[in-house]
Amino acid sequence: MSDILIRPLEEKDHADWKRLWTNYLIFYKASVSEEVYATTWERLIGEGEFEPNGFLAFIDGRAVGLVHYIYHRSCWSLVNNCYLQDLFADASTRGKGVGSKLIKAVQDEAGKLGIKNVYWMTKEDNAVARSLYDKVATRTGFIEYDLL
C-alpha cells in the first residue's frame, strides 16, 4: 500500500470533501440539506477559535478519508477540549491505517494548543471503527443522551 498523506482541508478540496462526507452520512443512514453542506464547508475553511476544522487523507493523490474536529471550552480545564466529530475512510481503505493517521493528525494539532483531551463517540454496533478506537484510545464508559 502507498503512503498515506494527511493534510488540512483547502478550498480546492470541496468536491473530494463533499464526496467523502456524503459517503460518511450514507454509512450512518443520515442526510443533510444542501444549505447544511454549504454552511459546513464555509465553517471548515473559515477562521475562528470555535469553528470546525478538518483534514483529508490521500493515497496516490486520491482523497480517501476525512476527519472533522471542533475545539470547545470546558468547565474542567483552563484549555479547550477537542471533539473529533466525524471520521471516515473509503471502504476500500479501511484497516489500512487511514483512520488512525487522521486521529493522530487531530491529536497532534490539538497538542500544538496544549489540548490533551481529544474525544469522540461512535455507534455501539460500529465494530470496524471500534476495533481501531480500542487500539488508539481509552473507552470512558460514558453513555450519550440526546434531547432531540
TrEMBL record:
Keyword Transferase belongs to the record: yes
Keyword set, alphabetical order: Acyltransferase, Transferase
GO molecular function: N-acetyltransferase activity
Domain N-acetyltransferase stretches: 4-148
Keyword Calcium: no
Domain of life: Bacteria
Name of the protein this chain belongs to: GCN5 family N-acetyltransferase
Organism: Limoniibacter endophyticus
